[in-house]
Amino acid sequence: MKNKIIILLCLLFCTSYVSAENVALWFDSPANQWMQSLPVGNGRLGAMIFGGVDTEKLALNESSMWAGQYAPEQEKSFGKAKLQELRELFFQGKLVEGNQMCHEYLTSDNHSFGTHLPVGDLNIQFLYPVEGSYTNYKRVLDLDKGLHTVSYTLGNVTYTRECFASNPDDVLVMHVTANKKSSVSVEISLNLLRQPSKVRTLDNQLIFNGQALSKNSKGGVWFEGRVTVSAIGGNVQTKENKIAVSNADELILRIDIRTDYKNPGYKGLCKKTVKAAEKKSYEKIKKQHIADFSALFNRVSLSLGDKRDAYQLPTSVRLKQYRENPAEDPAFVALFFQYARYLLISSSRENSPLPIALQGFFNDNLACNMAWTNDYHLDINTQQNYWLSNVGNLSECNAPLFKYIQELSVYGQRTAQNVYGCKGWTAHTVANIWGYTSPSNGIGYGLFPTASSWLASHLWTEYEYTQDRKFLKDTAYPLLKGNAEFLLDYMVEDPSGKYLLTGPSISPENSFVYNNTALSASMMPTCDRVLAYEILNSTLQSARILNVDIDFQNDIENALQKLPPIRLMANGGIREWLEDYQEAIPNHRHTTHLLSLYPFNQISLDYTPELAKGALTTIENRLSAPDWEDVEWSRANMICYYARLHKNQEAYNSINILLEKLIRDNLFSVSPVGIAGAATDIFAIDGNQAAAAGIAEMLIQSQNGYIELLPCLPEQWNKGACAGLCIRGGGQVDFSWDRQGVKAATIHAKNDYPYRIKLPKENRYEILLNQKRINMVPDKHGLISISMNQGDTLNLIRL
């Protein structure tokens, strides 16, 4: 018996392992444009690498490179008395007049709002001893190592360059070698996008500084960057604003960029960082970087079935072939999933100064020139950027988000008081690094005070997955409580006294028809109801766990009982507003009322089947509407929605649509031409992150109080294995499957927790706790219950 267990467990772990070859992007030619280049990042500092032969380009990025400045008078004072006057218009059915009053009094100035900006390009021009064409070209991004490599042969010399962004040493590093001595000759220069800026040389360094300014905003951070050039063999010379290296055996660049955002000593820190990195050998920096990056990335492996020769194809070719026949290469979806985890690690680390912005950590210089800027959009995009973190075993990557929520809560207290005359804190749809929490200059997208509640909900999700009581006490509960205080003070009884309502507020960025007029603002749109419930309920649960604030708990319990229910429209779909209004834009990309389905669980197949049916109707109506606004994040939403509804083929088809229409050669998701005025495709990382979260949701779910494996498995993924995905309760799960379902599964308890597991009814399983067989009979729902202690292991083995 013991040998049988060992064999089966070995089978599980062997089949769940994914080799490094499977988690790499590679191309057989250099990038000709930004959307073909490949990213490296350490959570603060990053680059898009083009891999050119004649000229290598690194498009540089630093997360705090922001235009704009703090605006102390960011909102108009309104107050509770005026708010009550406004609400009376809505209660009297004067919605047109109410919307006009919202436009007049609840919009605000954002002249110094700002945007995230790219730094510019570091150019490395190569000078070769012979002329001719290159051969054997390959550029590779090893996801498990966070390492970018370019290699090619020119003449009889093979050149190799490696590049990575080290978190331990906090620098970008490039290493250039050749298999023949004295073959590396380059000229290094900068093409900065930020003006005014200055470039100078000092010894072996390029030093540049200036201010991050944008044409639409006042102010901006000051910055300094340094590029150190070290050569083994050969000569290093300065040429005005360039550095030339001739006839070297090896070349090493170490790069840092700092801004004065919360960092008055930024210049000295930049100098100190590159100096410290210069004292360490390239191999030591690389070794420490790989150890650091791999420790995070290798927590999760995923196999959805292999087509072995697929890995021999360049990623661009493989993507093209996948689009033609997805079923032939299911492993491509696994690669796409792991790429999202790679991007999250590269963009958001525990020591990052800021979380991932709207467009993403990497900046193509397009979104920041749009009217909507590369800011923090809190009406879905910022949240989507972190949907993968917990289930994807990267909870540490949430740290910058939580730090940012803490900052918003400070500024948001002023907004809550000035705009609404309320206690607590709030923030609206658009936010920046300068404490902007106001409704913005347009109510159709900006008048969304529960945006703060949506963002704060991530705090409770973190606790659900980690069971970190210290985090709950010190970080999550104070912020949740502050937002709950705002909601309790902000909500008002409707004229009947039956319900507590928010408002006037919006369902972002949608509108409804009332008396033949398209309007945005109303009392308690459905998304507000959903978000108010989430914050109040999670605050209540937190207070109970911590055994604090008994009177406040009672206030919350009373408020929860007076929230209106989620309702159906006459057409069977979920109401987007409190009343059954006609949608002004039936093809709109936003479906904020379906937050109730995902990421939350107020609509579920188990507990609210009629509402689940209504959610499906809503989805089908949106997708079938003429000119449905299919963008990267809304299509990723569909994967998540369908996964929760256990619609396996529909979820799978949405993955394929995303990969066919909304992903570019470097596997970046894009907001396509025409959406919100975009003249070209614009990179937005939310599609990568939310789609990967949806893929995880297809494989494992835990929101209903039990663990369910393969709840939404498409027939095309009929064989596979996964290891390392996380579940609510603080556990981690490894499992494998075939056409008959789950073959074996292992649950690792990271905390003491009473788990429930749903066993497939069509199979029988041997159950072992810490390798000892236990007899358990599933209940009528197929559930087994077992209390596990920290460090326990539960194995399920199909008989």
TrEMBL record:
Any one GO MF annotation of this record: alpha-L-fucosidase activity
A Gene Ontology BP annotation from the UniProt entry: carbohydrate metabolic process
Segments forming domain Glycosyl hydrolase family 95 catalytic: 281-699
Alphabetical list of SUPFAM superfamilies matching this protein: Six-hairpin glycosidases
Domain Alpha fucosidase A-like C-terminal: 701-794
Keywords: Hydrolase, Signal
Leader sequence residues: 1-20
InterPro entries in UniProt: 6-hairpin_glycosidase_sf, 6hp_glycosidase-like_sf, AFCA-like_C, Alpha-L-fucosidase, GH95_cat, GH95_N_dom, Glyco_hydro_b
Pfam families, per database record: Glyco_hyd_65N_2 (PF14498), Glyco_hydro_95_C (PF21307), Glyco_hydro_95_cat (PF22124)
Domain (Glycosyl hydrolase family 95 N-terminal): residue spans on this chain: 25-263
Name of the featured protein: Glycoside hydrolase family 95 protein
Organism: Barnesiella viscericola DSM 18177
